[in-house]
Amino acid sequence: MLHSFIPPHRYFAYLSWAQVAEMDDKENVVIIQPVGAIEQHGLHLPLAVDSVIALGVLGKALEMLDSAVPAYSLPMLYYGKSNEHSSFVGTIALSATTLTNILTEMAESLYRSGFRKLVFFNAHGGQPQVLQIIARDLHVKYPDLMIFPLFVWNVPNAAAELLSPKELALGIHAGDAETSLMLTLLPEQVNMDRAVSEYPQGLPQDSSLSMEGMLPFAWSTQDLSKSGVIGDATVATTEKGDRLLETLSSGWIRTIKDIYKFKQPSTDSVS
Predict the structure, then answer these.
(1) What is the CATH number of domain 24-263?
(2) For residue range 149-173, what is the model confidence (pLDDT) as tens digits?
(3) By CB neighbour count within 10 A (0-12 exposed, 13-18 middle, 19+ buried), where does 144 fall?
């Protein structure tokens, strides 16, 4: 079905135009755009990992969300800015310009319908900066439009208690966390017989520079990995995936509630 992991009553595309027109308190209704990718994730995982994780986590959160909080998921945007993986066949990448145009025009359509709170619910690590720029530009153009460019892994979750210190520091793609979540969400598409452990070699030593963090350097996946995995997928388990899904979805329930209550800061309200 179209809604996938999303509860049908929380799926925006199942509404009629009349239901949208008659919606109460529309400016505080939380509209969520899940954004993923179709890109390589090693030999053991399908191309759709980021999209599956976005839908799985969001769907679980919306399933448990208080019915008094009006929140709807838009259809998944499966393609993202994935050119760091373009040396691996099967990856489908949008340019930053194309992604910007798609999300901007989508947001403007929702604005014309009367909505004022929009979440970019992103699960692909290669595009947070693009979504932040889109969000800022939209808010500057429409000051009463509240945009939240958020990353699925940035809510409190159990990763720190489940993953090794090395995996937490370096396991950024198709490693323990993503593989474990996929074992929970879509186990029939995971081939653990082909899982590998591959950490990046040749990283700068005794340096303030790193792949990610405060002082990053630009890289593509082929610089860091032959298999496409950056991390240890061999230690993934369904039990870890269950715990990650539980804690991520709980974190997102809190975040969606906070967005529903959010008021845009304004100097006009300061006495």
Answers:
(1) 3.40.50.10310
(2) 999 999 999 999 999 999 999 999 9
(3) exposed
